[in-house]
Structures are given as structure tokens and as C-alpha cells.
């Protein structure tokens, strides 16, 4: 098992903020919009360095999405920033018509996704956003796992022409991917090769998958671990190659199993190589208040849940 | 551009009527009411490049928010030269670039945003206006909204924003025909004094009392353009007549979204003689 080192806990949203700051220095067309959450989205530095290219829209997300669509006409690359809940469900039709159907080059950057938002509770903890966004034709959907990956993804999506949903979170989590990584949209990252079970994780669950892999090895199970940051388009090749060897799969995500990464994987397995799959995801439920750790445990979103799923799914082979 | 606008508007009316009749669907009422506005805007006011480029740098831009009046938009664009007039024949048919509601998705020149789901066009036009400011591009952004559409809350977010941020390269026109699908706007959901509402938000408010009068539209749009760049967004409250130019389609909301039958079409076309050649 390859050893991954946590270089110090950091929040993924700071990766976004720092990536955006870098873009502000290097790409004259990048503009940023925020709906009264500049500090929460870590957009303060970009705002300070680029006051003319930072647009505060107030608490008016629908208007923000429309303005972002309009800004692309003239060649701007708008990055919108608000919580995942207000970046998706609240403005679904604005994204659908003015951005996705209109083929606009808007980067929808969504923080505080999932239950790890914590104490604010279910009104703010969206667990349906991946599903909402991946259903939109032409939308690229990315869910990054740590600070370094989020920063790299933020910089990379500015180069890509087309609408992107970039999902990240609030809590400080392990930062373990390389600082100088090359972020490739649509490419899974092989974290560890193994033979007995494939674990495909996204977002905050990637670090949990690594921890689970270490524990599984102690009980004699060799896990192949894949970091899927791009849920759409999905890297089906890396997944199919893996299950050809392992014969079973665990998907792990901080999202409802309805509409999440797991369902996207099920589709490619059903079409190509139906093997047993187990889902680490929320079970068609809203979240609640609590600390991120408590919520991850209660909703079955941690390394223990992955270990349990892995041992069960192996038995179904 | 040197063109007889009376002849042009007659022909656009014929195009609208024939398009919706041919596929027995579409929205003739609102389309007929905005013929003069779009004709004046595209043939007399806007600085445009017929080599269509999405970014429209140094061009005036137009956004149609009430996308259901696509027939008048398509006819005007084709008569202006954005795409072949014969293509009007494909309106609402399978494999057409002229979708029921306008879209960029099929690559129709002249369209810069999809619209149809109401209430989104003002925000988009504000974004395009901000993009021009960032590019130091001095041209103007125009938008047209229906009056019923002001019932959508997103517009009021946009109205507040545009004034607060001094988006003064934007001229929004509201098509005040007083009608929507379920009846008069006053019956469905009265919007109160729209003039005072815009003023209280900080907009410069102009009015066209005869929104089907070419000269009045030309005067007001010319004046509106002359007062851009003065720290205020501009709105024109344009009183139009739904179904204008076809006697039996006027004074009713009944023709919002239905097409004339053969007999009605003949009657309507007789009131609008062919001038520039049917498609």
C-alpha cells in the first residue's frame, strides 16, 4: 500500500480561493462573482487584487447566474461563488437555460457541499447537487478531494471552454495530493493498486478510502483505490480496467446515492461488466446539525463505512 | 440603413402570420405587437456586424427575454441579413435552427442566449453590459422584456443590481401590452405603477405611448442611446398593442399562443400586403 502523507489539514475552499487568486494574476479574462459569501468562499484575495473584476451581486443567486452567462459574451470567464445549495437547486433553471443550454463558459464554484458543512444543518447541506448538475447536457462535474487538488482544478477549468460545476467543502481535511499535480479533467487518479476490491472515491471520501485501504490490508484485503475528481465525464476506462482485476467495487461519496457518483459507475458496469457494487453514500435523507466528524459517522461516510462495504461486497463475488 | 420601414413591418407581419400558421403553433399576438420596435432597433439604431460573432465586440447587442415572441425576432434577423429568409420556412420544424424559443444551441446567427423560461434576459443583458465595460467597449446593450414577465422575481434582483452598480450602457424595453396567457396583467397579478417602481430603484425611465408608431420608437431609442453613460440604466416603457396590424387579433389576449386557421390567415394577410417578397 502506497503511503500517503497528510501535509497538514486545509480546507478545499481555500484551494479554490488560492487558485482563483492565481488566475487573477495570470488570466486577464477571469472575473469572479459572489453572492454575499466572499469570506466563506475565500475570494477575499482575488477581490483585493482585482476590484474591477470582482462583482458582488448581493443575496441574489438567480441574478448572479444570469450575469455570469452574459459576461461570457465578450470573452470573460466568470467564476461564480456561493454555497453548493445556492449554486444548484436554487438556480437550476437559470443554469439550465442561460448557461448549459446556451453553451456559456461559466464556472460554477460551489463550497460547503455535503454534510461536512456541519452545524448549519440540512437547509445548507446539499446532498443532491451532483445529480442535479450531471443531468444537465454538456455540464462538466468535478468534486475535488483536498486543498492541492482543488487549487489545481480551479486553475485548470479556466483553460477549458464550457460550463463546469466545481464542488468543494468547508472543513479542514487532510492535504495529501501533490502540490505540483497536473489536473486532467475527466481522468481518474490511481492511488493504490490492489487485487481484491476496487474503491472509487470522490471529494472528502478519498482520504477516508486511503485510510480504509490501510486497515483492509491489515486483515489481508488488497484494495485498489481510485480518486475520481471528475464525475462527468467519467473515466470509465480506469474503472473497468480495475474491476476486470478485482471483480467488485465500492463507490464512496458525500452525496445521496440517488444521482451520485455511484450511480454513474453502476451504469458503466451494467453496460460493460456487471460486478457487485456497494455504495457508501447517504441513504435518501437530509442531513442535520453536528460536527463534520459526527455527521460523517452517523451517515456512514467514513473509513469504517468503506471497510464494512468492502468486506461485504467481496463476499458477493 | 436605407429601407422603407412601413414596407418592412408589413412584411415582418406576413412572415409572423405565415410561420405560425404553417406549423399551427407559436405566439403571434406578442410578436405582432413588437414588430415596429425590432424593425427600428435592427435597421436604424443598432451598430451591428452581420458576420455573426458571439462575443460581439464593438457591436451593439440585443437580448430577447420574452423568447416566445421568436417569430418577430426570427423574421427581423433574417430580413436584416443574419441568415437566409428562406429559413423562416423551417420555424418549429424538426432539425431546424429556428426552435420554438430562441437558442444558441443550434448555431442560428444573431442569437446570443436561449430564452423562453421567463425572467432571465435582464440579468444576462446586465452581464453582457458589464463585459463591455471590462473590455472598454463603448457600444450599447439592448433587451426586451414582456410586461407579464416582470412578475418573475429575478427581474427585481436585476433591476436593483443594475442601478446600484451604475450599469449605464444598458437600455431595457418593457413591452407593455397589458396581457398575459390567463388574461390582462391587471387581472392575473397587478404590478402597480411600473414607472414609479423603476424610478424608485434608480433607473432613468422613458416612455413610448404609441409602441407601434415607427417615428415615436425611433425618437425614443435615439434619445435613450444619447443618454447612456450617465451612471443610470435606462428603461423604456413601451405601450404596444398585442396582435397589432390584424384587426381580429387586437384587443384580446386570445392570440397569445395560438395560430390562425386558413381562413383567418387569408384575412390577416389581406390586411398586410406583400412588400418585400414572402419567404
What does this structure look like?
The complex is a heterodimer of chains A (317) and B (279). Chain A is an alpha/beta fold and 317 residues long. Chain A has 2 domains: 10-173, 3-Layer(aba) Sandwich (Rossmann fold); 189-315, Rossmann fold (3-Layer(aba) Sandwich). Chain A has helices at residues 12-26, 44-49, 61-71, 84-87, 92-100, 129-134, 147-157, 205-218, 236-246, 261-272, 292-298, 303-315, and strands at 10-11, 30-34, 54-56, 77-83, 107-111, 140-143, 164-167, 172-173, 189-192, 197-201, 223-227, 230-232, 249-256, 277-282. Chain A has a 7-stranded mixed beta sheet, sandwiched between helices. In chain A, strands 9-11-10-13-14 form a 5-stranded mixed beta sheet, sandwiched between helices. In chain A, helix 7 links the parallel strand 6 and strand 7 (164-167). The longest helix of chain A is centred in the N-terminal third of the chain and has 15 residues, at 12-26. The model of chain B has no long low-confidence stretch (mean pLDDT 97). Chain B is globular, with a radius of gyration of 18 Å. The two termini of chain B are 21 Å apart. Chain B has one domain (5-270): 3-Layer(aba) Sandwich (Rossmann fold). In chain B, helix 1 packs antiparallel against helix 10 (262-270), helix 3 (35-45) runs parallel beside helix 4 (70-80) and helix 3 (35-45) crosses helix 9 (214-226). Chain B is α/β, with parallel strands linked by helices and 279 residues long.
In short:
The complex is a heterodimer of chains A (317) and B (279). Chain A is α/β, with parallel strands linked by helices and 317 residues long.
Amino acid at each position: 500500500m502506497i503511503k500517503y502523507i497528510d501535509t497538514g489539514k486545509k480546507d478545499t475552499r481555500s484551494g479554490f480561493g488560492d487558485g482563483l487568486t492565481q488566475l487573477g494574476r495570470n488570466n486577464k479574462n477571469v472575473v469572479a462573482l459572489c453572492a454575499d459569501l466572499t469570506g466563506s468562499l475565500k475570494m477575499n484575495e482575488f477581490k483585493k487584487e482585482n476590484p474591477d473584476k470582482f462583482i458582488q451581486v448581493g443575496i441574489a443567486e438567480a441574478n448572479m447566474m444570469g450575469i455570469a452567462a452574459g459576461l461570457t459574451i465578450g470573452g470573460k470567464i466568470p467564476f461564480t461563488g456561493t454555497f453548493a445549495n445556492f449554486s444548484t437547486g436554487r438556480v437550476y433553471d437559470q443554469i439550465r437555460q442561460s448557461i448549459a443550454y446556451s453553451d456559456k463558459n461559466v464556472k460554477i464554484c460551489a463550497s460547503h457541499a455535503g454534510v461536512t458543512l456541519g452545524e448549519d444543518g440540512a437547509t445548507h447541506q446539499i446532498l443532491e447537487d451532483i445529480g442535479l448538475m450531471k443531468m444537465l447536457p454538456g455540464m462538466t462535474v468535478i468534486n475535488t478531494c483536498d486543498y492541492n487538488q482543488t487549487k489545481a482544478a480551479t486553475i485548470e477549468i479556466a483553460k477549458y471552454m464550457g460550463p463546469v460545476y466545481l464542488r468543494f467543502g468547508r472543513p479542514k481535511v487532510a492535504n495529501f495530493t501533490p502540490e505540483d499535480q497536473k489536473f486532467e479533467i475527466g481522468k481518474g487518479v490511481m492511488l493504490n493498486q490492489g487485487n481484491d476490491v476496487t474503491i472509487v472515491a470522490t471529494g472528502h471520501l478519498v482520504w477516508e478510502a486511503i485510510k480504509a485501504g490501510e486497515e483492509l490490508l491489515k486483515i489481508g484485503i488488497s484494495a485498489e483505490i481510485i480518486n475520481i475528481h471528475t464525475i462527468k465525464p467519467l473515466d470509465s476506462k480506469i474503472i473497468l480496467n480495475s474491476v476486470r482485476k478485482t471483480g467488485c467495487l465500492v463507490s464512496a461519496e458525500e452525496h445521496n446515492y440517488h444521482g451520485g457518483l455511484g450511480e454513474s459507475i453502476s451504469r458503466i458496469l451494467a453496460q460493460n461488466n456487471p460486478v457487485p457494487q456497494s455504495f457508501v453514500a447517504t441513504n435518501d435523507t437530509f442531513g442535520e446539525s453536528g460536527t463534520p466528524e459526527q455527521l460523517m459517522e452517523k451517515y456512514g461516510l467514513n473509513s469504517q463505512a468503506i471497510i464494512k462495504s468492502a468486506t461485504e461486497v467481496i463476499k458477493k463475488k | 440603413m436605407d429601407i422603407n420601414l412601413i414596407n418592412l413591418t408589413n412584411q415582418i407581419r406576413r412572415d409572423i402570420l405565415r410561420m405560425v400558421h404553417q406549423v399551427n403553433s407559436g405566439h403571434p399576438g406578442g410578436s405582432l405587437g413588437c414588430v415596429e420596435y425590432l424593425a427600428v432597433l435592427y435597421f436604424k439604431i443598432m451598430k451591428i456586424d452581420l458576420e455573426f460573432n458571439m462575443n460581439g465586440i464593438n457591436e451593439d447587442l440585443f437580448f430577447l427575454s420574452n423568447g416566445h415572441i421568436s417569430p418577430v425576432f426570427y423574421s427581423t434577423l433574417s430580413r436584416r441579413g443574419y441568415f437566409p429568409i428562406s429559413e423562416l420556412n423551417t420555424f418549429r420544424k424538426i432539425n431546424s435552427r429556428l426552435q420554438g424559443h430562441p437558442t444558441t444551441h443550434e448555431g442560428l446567427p444573431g442569437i446570443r442566449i436561449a430564452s423562453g423560461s421567463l425572467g432571465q434576459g435582464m440579468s444576462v443583458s446586465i452581464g453582457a453590459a458589464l463585459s463591455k465595460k471590462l473590455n472598454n467597449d463603448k457600444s450599447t446593450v439592448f433587451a426586451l422584456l414582456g410586461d407579464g414577465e416582470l412578475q418573475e422575481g429575478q427581474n427585481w434582483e436585476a433591476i436593483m443590481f443594475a442601478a446600484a452598480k451604475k450599469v449605464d450602457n444598458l437600455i431595457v424595453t418593457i413591452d407593455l401590452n397589458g396581457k398575459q396567457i390567463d388574461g390582462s396583467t391587471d387581472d392575473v397579478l397587478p404590478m402597480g405603477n411600473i414607472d414609479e417602481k423603476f424610478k424608485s430603484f434608480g433607473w432613468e425611465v422613458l416612455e413610448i405611448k404609441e409602441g407601434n408608431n415607427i417615428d415615436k420608437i425611433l425618437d425614443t431609442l435615439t434619445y435613450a442611446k444619447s443618454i447612456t453613460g450617465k451612471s443610470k440604466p435606462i428603461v423604456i416603457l413601451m405601450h404596444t398593442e398585442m396582435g397589432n396590424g390584424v384587426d381580429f387579433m387586437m384587443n384580446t389576449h386570445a392570440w397569445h399562443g395560438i395560430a390562425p386557421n386558413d381562413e383567418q390567415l387569408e384575412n390577416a394577410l389581406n390586411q398586410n400586403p406583400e412588400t418585400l417578397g414572402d419567404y
